[in-house]
């Protein structure tokens, strides 16, 4: 008989365990699934392309974000981390998948880019290796693969690692276009995330209500020949952490 729940972390781990093992995409145990996902680099996966997100490039071009320290969450093969490095950012990039990190490191060597890649659970690493402060935390496609209770971990990471005046750049599934629209509690009954969670603008504003919204819009579709990545089934959002008065 276990009676070992004492902390918030204990509760979060208990809730992790309510999901089927094969549904795990967010803990260290989920790394093997992502390794298999990235094993075949020739698959027609949209974000396998070596192109940065169109919204990220737009933020840079318009001066909404400026070079500093950046953390790329769920960096995959490193396409956005490389763009940030080329813009003058000092970049840490993290992913659960060793296969994704290996691919990203190859791209970085080919591009001559200086990026520090880390393989592992960003929530665990945030307390040590990825403690910041970061001027930019960038997330293209990580947030919609975490279960509802892990938003607590996500917000704690922002609280710990995002510098005052720093920005969160987020790209996630848009309700009505991609992802599951089940209510939060249903994912625990289903024991899975149904491929990822869809969000509305209102839900994103509520979750990140401690931050100031700079821009929230649908991602622009980009043609195959474009040098940028863009799919309209995604929201793009830029939030700023207020500076304490």
Kindly describe this structure.
With 245 residues, this protein is of the alpha/beta class. The protein is built from nine helices and seven strands. The chain has helices at residues 8-16, 31-39, 54-61, 79-86, 98-111, 122-125, 151-161, 184-190, 201-207, and strands at 69-73, 90-95, 115-119, 134-140, 162-173, 212-218, 234-240. Strands 3-2-1-4-5-7-6 form a seven-stranded mixed beta sheet. Helix 4 (79-86) links the parallel strand 1 (69-73) and strand 2 (90-95). It is globular and about 55 Å long. The chain starts with 7 loop residues before the first helix and ends in a 5-residue tail after the last strand. The relative contact order is 0.16. The model has no long low-confidence stretch (mean pLDDT 96).
Question: What's the quick description here?
Answer:
The chain has 245 residues and is of the alpha/beta class. It has helices at residues 8-16, 31-39, 54-61, 79-86, 98-111, 122-125, 151-161, 184-190, 201-207; strands at 69-73, 90-95, 115-119, 134-140, 162-173, 212-218, 234-240.
